[in-house]
Specification:
The chain has 233 residues and is mainly alpha-helical. It is 79% helix and 0% strand. Helix 1 runs antiparallel to helix 5. The radius of gyration is 18 Å and the shape is globular.
């Protein structure tokens, strides 16, 4: 099998196991722990499963593709560039996401995700789980979506645009388990912004930091604000 065939299987493998984790991680963990519902322990174990998926894809790239996990070598930048890039990305994603949220609420009068309601209780004052969750999302999702999938799609079809769009669509779909339109559209928007940045500047660390910040600030706000009030933002 040629390298393009291996890339295709790797991309499909990534999507299938991530989709499987989104759908079946909680039922599987519930069977193991014997505790039903979203609890701190159950949620922590599902984050460990996400890390397991990353290591499966990493091993696939190392053993089957026989190459680097990141096809694009990270470019080094100054500390000032890191700070400016993270702040700019955060503002673009936050303001753009907020505007999209307003438009979606105006068009379909969408309610808050029930799953999001359930998550607020387990994060309440549990800072280890909150930080671990944010780091898991920032590191694993960026390494898989931008670091692994995007450049391989680009190489397969010789199209940077397809790499950007495909990785963003996949990123949006994988957030659909929250059960709302906004939780697909806004991650898709963020996925496009991040993918364009990665194509232009080739630095996955900045994206991991910014992704962590977006999730961390959002979850900290959920800790200190009533989610019904927070939804208005």
């Amino acid at each position: 099998m040629g390298i393009n065939g291996k890339y295709s299987i790797g991309i499909l493998l990534t999507f299938v196991i991530l989709a499987g984790a989104m759908l079946y991680a909680f039922p599987a963990v519930t069977m193991i722990t014997g505790v039903r519902g979203i609890t701190e322990t159950n949620f922590l174990l599902t984050r460990c499963i996400i890390w397991g998926i990353f290591f499966i894809v990493f091993l696939y790239s190392f053993i089957i593709e026989k190459g680097s996990f990141l096809l694009k070598k990270d470019i080094r930048y100054s500390l000032l560039f890191y700070i400016k890039a993270v702040i700019c990305l955060y503002l673009i994603c936050s303001i753009g996401g907020a505007l999209l949220n307003v438009i979606i609420h105006f068009l379909v009068q969408e309610k808050i995700s029930d799953k999001l309601f359930d998550l607020t209780s387990i994060f309440k004052n549990n800072y280890f789980l909150l930080i671990f969750t944010c780091f898991t999302a920032g590191a694993v999702e960026e390494l898989l979506m931008r670091g692994y999938v995007q450049p391989r799609i680009e190489k397969l079809y010789n199209s940077p645009t397809l790499g950007i769009i495909f990785s963003a669509v996949l990123f949006g779909i994988l957030h659909s388990t929250y059960g709302t339109i906004g939780q697909v559209v806004i991650p898709f928007f963020i996925g496009v912004v991040f993918a364009v940045f990665y194509k232009r500047y080739s630095n996955i660390k900045i994206l991991i930091i910014c992704h962590f910040m977006i999730d961390f600030i959002s979850l900290m706000a959920m800790n200190f604000m009533n989610i019904k009030h927070l939804s208005l933002l």
